[in-house]
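Title: Prediction job returns without error message
Component: structure pipeline
Severity: low
Priority: P3
Assignee: unassigned

Description:
Job completed but the reporter wants confirmation the result is attached to the right record. Sequence as submitted:
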Amino acid sequence: MTIEKCTVFCGSRDGNSPVYTQAARELGHAMAKEKLALIYGGGAGGMMGTLARTIVKAGGHVKGITTSFLEEQELRYKGLSDLEIVADMPTRKKALFELGDVYIILPGGFGTFDEFMEVLVNRQLNLHKKPIFILNTNHWADPLLALMEATIQQAFAPAEIHTFYTVVENVPALIKALKSL
């Protein structure tokens, strides 16, 4: 499998530890070095902005997809040469889901959870076969992973869900996993 574009879902905020921003910066440098284009929500704030700015500064390609509604709230990153403004959130999510070759989940809030769950459910329904990676920086995803395990243990989801995503602890492990696809 050839990976050229990565759809990344992550926070429009920085979180409460500088390790989150550092992980976004580290991923940005690695993606630019590996010539992996970023597909993301177009925001300038938080981890989203850090990731996009890092890739742009390193000479990589970044495509942002936002809505006029979010553009007003999130302050879009104005340094993008490739920004698409769509009508609404469903159209935005559809584009984010379709354009990337893989999905990478970084620390984030409820929007990140929503996007992750939708790509996971779509994978469960065989609507795509794209790899999903969770970058578990500073054990950010541990509660989410525990909830998913509890859901499986309570027979609300099949155990095969575990095969639909890969958890990595750091950016070098993520890049290694991407190269092995």
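Comment from assignee: result matches the submitted record. The radius of gyration is 15 Å.
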